[in-house]
């Protein structure tokens, strides 16, 4: 029944992906039961939350929204907000529109007597603005932007903390800290496996948001001594806030697993697309687009002093829209300022010469792996090993250290050859990107003709359409039957030290991704509605008596073909192991059936139903 198991698991998974709000009645009932904590419950959070402007008003989506709403209530503050919004529009504009927008900005905000004049500007900047000519506009706009941000961090931010807007933000912060466990989610098919457990698709019950859950077996972690590595990966993921790196949304524990809930990337990895879709290799427009996004992701990691160490196409995943993100930060390491790394880590064929020679190394190793990946996207092979070539690790090492890269594939353009040569330089100091330190990790430091068609400001803002969109009806993952089960670990007992570690790991929701989820799925507007009346408490996701309880399969016999909406007798159903991850129903005396879908398998017609209680 392996093929049937896979078909059923995929059908349930794809159905959940199609409707991110889940079953309408179920979601509505759940949401009606939710309510924000009362203001008097926010005292502890008010005292504990650091009053940091950048974190609250710029980084956290809900804080940013409330701060903007507050600025609208004070004319002087509103002008500052409008100016920053217009500056953002200018920075993200197409090149042919930038000049006119810049002219308008200077006229409307920086010239004395204008309606939106920034009266809080320093006298020095005000004088520069009055004397400025068109060639000075860009520089004075940057200075005005900096002074406006500095202005908002002072009295406006202090005033904000004494308003109902801030009180409402604190209510959301308390709600954000609700306990998270396995009851918070629905669980779907297994997508893959790692060294300590499997990765499966899950869905948040209260919002319908889909994620990938990396489940780390507690006993396996302890037996293999992987606790430190798991915690380090979790801590690094918490620090990351970049659209080109997978996001950690939740960290929780179940009885048997530690769980990392991350971005669900439905489009498969680049290795799959290079070798399994059409001819080997990718089209040049895709290569440039992915390379630009990967570059932004690596630069973000370097800007917060994180060395990736495992850059390769297999670790670059595509989302539903065709944008890519770096994944699997299990080998990533935090680099202390001015220090280097000595530990050997990475994947054979992508490791830089300094790693192979066991020398001290730093950020340039990621750029070497980037060069290998661009080469592979073009040629459908790595620089130092041909496709399906049987060669030892020592031989790959020798070639990496000694051989010059050859560009024999017809798709290599002059710009592509040049950027590969620069990334693949044997000496780290000669490598493109080697002069980009963590303090200056900007795309402008990596300017190259290869990226001449990319507007990086617009790319980072998500304003450039990807050249390829994955098929939403395809599951880019191995069949369920092909993902081997882990053997049971015996003889492992947990002590108090283990329990303390589990508690340290399971910190619940990560603020920025959680707030993005709440806004994206409409729950923010719903719970902020002043006319809303909550019907109960269901914040923990699993306390409701009703919901999706069990999927089961019914052989679609002739007598049911015209009466598919009628409940078929349970005795005639088949429940496979694919159903074990679906929450079991609590009240077996009150059930009804919902048609889920039809398909053909083994010459028979089948129906999937959802059993509700």
From TrEMBL:
Q: Which residues form the AGC-kinase C-terminal domain?
A: 452-517
| InterPro entries membership | AGC-kinase_C, GPCR_kinase, Kinase-like_dom_sf, Prot_kinase_dom, Protein_kinase_ATP_BS, RGS, RGS_sf, RGS_subdomain_2
Active-site positions on this chain: 310 (proton acceptor)
Q: Protein kinase domain spans which residues?
A: 185-451
Write out the residues that bind ATP.
Answer: 214
What's in the GO CC field? cytoplasm; membrane
Q: Which family does it belong to?
A: Belongs to the protein kinase superfamily. AGC Ser/Thr protein kinase family. GPRK subfamily.
Give the species this sequence originates from: Gopherus agassizii (Agassiz's desert tortoise)
Localisation per UniProt entry:
Membrane
One Pfam family, please name it. Answer: RGS
**Molecular-function GO terms, alphabetical:** ATP binding; rhodopsin kinase activity
Top-level taxon in the UniProt lineage: Eukaryota
- Bilayer topology: Lipid-anchor
Q: What does this protein do?
A: Retina-specific kinase involved in the shutoff of the photoresponse and adaptation to changing light conditions via cone opsin phosphorylation, including rhodopsin (RHO).
Would you tell me the protein name for this molecule? G protein-coupled receptor kinase
- What catalytic activity is recorded? L-threonyl-[rhodopsin] + ATP = O-phospho-L-threonyl-[rhodopsin] + ADP + H(+); L-seryl-[rhodopsin] + ATP = O-phospho-L-seryl-[rhodopsin] + ADP + H(+)
For whether the record's keyword set contains Transferase, the answer is yes
Keywords tagged on the record? ATP-binding, Kinase, Lipoprotein, Membrane, Methylation, Nucleotide-binding, Phosphoprotein, Prenylation, Sensory transduction, Serine/threonine-protein kinase, Transferase, Vision
On whether ATP-binding is a keyword of this UniProt record, the answer is yes
Entry's EC annotation: 2.7.11.-
The RGS domain sits at: 59-170
GO biological process: one example: visual perception
